[in-house]
Amino acid sequence: MATPTDHREARRIATEAGELLVRMRDAHPDPVSRRQALKDAGDAGSQVFIAAQLRDCFPEDAVLSEEAVDTDVRLSADRVWIIDPVDGTREFGEPPRDDWAVHVALWERGKELTAGAVALPAMGLTLGTDDAPMVPAAVDGPPRIVVSRTRPPAQAERVRAALDGQLLPMGSAGAKAMAVVRGVADAYVHAGGQYEWDSAAPAVVALAAGLHVSRLDGNPLRYNRADPYLPDLIICRPELAQRALDALAAA
40, 60, 101, 107: least CB-packed within 10 angstroms? Predict the structure, then answer.
């Protein structure tokens, strides 16, 4: 099982990568014509930093990253770090947006996800399994369901209708998942394509906080598969889970 060092280093690495990204964004010219250069630099710089930190701290562990070439080495490893150096590159490249994140998660054979952290660098906030966050009490009013700001799935509308809720567009997967953890939203519904690095860190932090986390069909999320495509998920307050899953199943 994950050690205190695993939990602590997940938070530190995510936080420090986020601080690096904030400095890069602050120093970069903002004209729209230069934003692609900022996004490219952020992806590359954060990848180099996180990879070096994991190599120094956990030299025997394998790594799966959005920004690195995948190999089959991880498939026989007992421990694999699943990372997204910049989750929400689009939002990162649009200062002053804050709905982007850094993901660092640990998968262990026979145990699935065991440690992780999601940094929200533009908010100066990191949520991690070393100090499991406490989800605030539900607020009065319709449930708030965070969805992609560019391509909200039809499944989210079904959940919204079943819960008599409202949709809340937001950027990166990590930002949306942490909105539920932070009590800014009540559910996050995604369909239409993601990879393991998009959801691993948000999932393990949400689980540590006591939220419901699953595929849209209610099955658990599984990681370190040969094909890292993991296209859908729901993260929500436990009291909303059955109604949401029933609505999805009925569709």
Answer: 60
How far apart are the C-alpha atoms of 6 and 3, rounded to whole Å?
5
* List of residues 6+ apart from 139 with CB closer than 8 A: 183
Domains of the chain are 4-131 (3.30.540.10), 144-250 (3.40.190.80)
Q: Is 87 annotated as a binding residue?
A: yes
Question: Which amino acid is located at 116 in the chain?
Answer: G
- Structure confidence at residue 149 (pLDDT): 84
Q: Which residue type does 210 have?
A: G
Residue 66 is labelled as binding a ligand: yes
198 annotated binding-site participant = yes
Closest CA to 39 of 100, 81, 82, 80: 100
Whether the per-residue pLDDT at 178 is higher than 90: the answer is: yes
